[in-house]
Amino acid sequence: MKSSKVLNIYKPLFPLILCALILVGCNKESNNSYEVYAPVDSLAAAFTVTPVPGNDTKFVITNTTPGEFVGTRWDIGKGSGLQMGKTSDTVFYPQAGTYTIKMQALDKRGKLYSATPISLTTTKSDPLFDNLIKGGKMNAGDDQYWGRYDATTNKIVWTLANNAYTATTATRPVTSQVNGGTYQAVQVVANKTYRFKMNVSYAAPQDAWLELYFGTAVPAEGKDYVDNKKLSLIAWGTWVGFTGEKFVDVTFGASGTIYVVIKMGCNSPSGGFSQQGIGISNVDFRRIQE
Predict the structure, then answer these.
(1) H helix count then E strand count, the chain
(2) How many CA atoms lie within 13 A of 200 on its CB side?
(3) What is the residue-wise DSSP string for 12-52?
(4) What is the DSSP letter of 206?
(5) What is the distance of C-alpha 276 from the center of its chain?
(6) What are the tens digits of pLDDT across the range 175-223?
(7) Average pLDDT of the chain?
(8) pLDDT tens digits, 101-153
């Protein structure tokens, strides 16, 4: 009788024990399922650079990484950094110089492998991609290539020295508004990208502006220039000193003559270009698109 009672006590527990065993078995099997992936081999990233026959400015770059890679990142040495690209592509270097090409191969897990960089040196430039600005180095005599205009009776004083073209005012601060600039006419081709860059140097100005325009209107004495502003180098209200390079890329809807205008000015009674003035140098404007 006693054994029968014990058996009756455990009978209701059997289904619970069986379910627990099944659950334990399922969990273990589920955990094991995360281990079915095979290990991924490391990639030995590599690429080649091959000159295009009969061309001094074009090269074919090809990702030759052995194994499974699913993507390629290129840095072709033009300042844009690493960007996703094609497995094989043609690159164009219109200006003579030395360029360092970098490549990264991407595996299916998203890991990047860097190849050994390759440097190449080109010795010929394509004349279509030369600097369109004359006298951009601001050497002695280069001021002959630059036009000047003043929109106000209070004129900007220009000085060419030490490889810089420097704008100052007769009084600091100015007694009346100053507004004017320097400019040069160039020929452009429609729907091609051009890059303008120059070095600028000034201490902290006050109530001043420095702007870049690419207009079709001819700058005129006594008239403010407002045609196609592209860049504010000194924005209104941010009057802090700066020494360095500024650049901007631009395209044009039509071929023909455009005027590169570097415009500046300041307001009275406290305005000024800073004690040292505003110096511009190394002005460069060239086409960068084939």
Answers:
(1) 2, 18
(2) 26
(3) THHHHHHHHHHHHHHHHHHHHGGG-SPPPPPP---EEEEEP
(4) B
(5) 29
(6) 999 999 999 999 999 999 999 999 999 999 999 999 999 999 999 999 9
(7) 88
(8) 999 999 999 999 999 999 999 988 888 899 999 999 999 999 999 999 999 99
Q: Do the strands 58-63 and 88-92 form a parallel or antiparallel pair, or are they unpaired? A: antiparallel
Q: Among residues of the chain, what percentage have pLDDT more than 90?
A: 78
Confidence of residue 285 (pLDDT cuts 50, 70, 90): very high
Amino acid present at 288:
I
Distance CA 194, CA 191 (A): 9
Distance between CA 186 and CA 215 in Å, rounded? 11
> Residue 153 is encoded by which pair of tokens?
């009776």
Q: How many CB atoms lie within 10 A of CB 224?
A: 14
Residue keyed to tokens 């058996």: 7
Phi-psi region of 199 (alpha: psi -120 to 50; beta: other; left: phi over 0): beta
Rounded CA separation 186/286 (Å): 10
State the pLDDT at residue 40.
60
Angstrom distance (rounded) from CA 185 to CA 193: 17
Give the separation between CA 121 and CA 181, rounded to whole angstroms.
38
